[in-house]
Every structure is written in structure tokens, then in C-alpha cells.
UniProtKB/TrEMBL annotation:
This is Precorrin-8X methylmutase. It comes from Picrophilus torridus (strain ATCC 700027 / DSM 9790 / JCM 10055 / NBRC 100828 / KAW 2/3). Its EC number is 5.4.1.2. One of its GO terms (biological process) is cobalamin biosynthetic process. Pathway: Cofactor biosynthesis; adenosylcobalamin biosynthesis.
Amino acid sequence: MVYALNPDEIYSKSFAIIKGIMKLDDSLKSKIIMRAAHATGDVETARSIIFSQNFEDGLFSPDDDIVTDINMVKYRISGYKIRCYIKDNDVMDMAKRLQISRSCIAMKKACREMPEAVYVIGDAPTVLISLIEEVIAKNAIRG
């Protein structure tokens, strides 16, 4: 059996395979779909992504603040001001006291402190659900 061990080669081959299976081009939409398929390991989930007709008009700029639920995402995004509250002492204390995930508490704090930020969710589905509720309640959908 032949397989790659070099991380860059694995990454490149993975994306090439996904691109071929899903018949994607080099457009921004295709790149987003490809990353979703790679992150989830599920092309059907990636195929379910729906873009608004003018979604690119709502994309963020380097001047925007970005908040993420986990440091792993924070360290993978470059060129932007990024904040992650997950390791803040008050977040950890409140999560322990209320027996709620740190991610959820961190995002609630972020919504209070940075309501205009762009939110990027890495791995906490409950955070995504509560963030969606916040966004809908405040009519803050972008793009």
C-alpha cells in the first residue's frame, strides 16, 4: 500500500480528492465547500451549504474583529484581529459553577463585549446553536 506521510502532501492530496469527487472549481464558493468537506469528512454535508446570492458582499475585511470558540481556530486564521475567550479565568469559573461548557460561556461573553464581531465556530455545536439564536434575535446576519 502506498500512502503519504508528509503533512503537506497529505493536505494537498486530500483537497485534490475532494475537489475531484465534488467537481469543484477554484471559486470562493468551491473553496468554502471543499474546506467544509475536509473538516467534516462528509461531502454530503458540504453539498448542503447554501450561499445567498450576494454572499461575497457580506464577507469580512481585515479591519473586522473575529471571535472564535477555540484556540485551534484562532491559530489557523492569519491577517485578522482574533479573540478567543475560552481560557479567560472568569469564563472557566462561570462554566464550572454553572456546569455549562466553557465555549458557551465564552461566546456569551463575546456577544456582550464584541457584538459586531464576525464569529467563527470550530467545534462546539451547542455554541453554534446559541449563537444562531443571538444573531436571529438581533437581526445581525451578514452576507
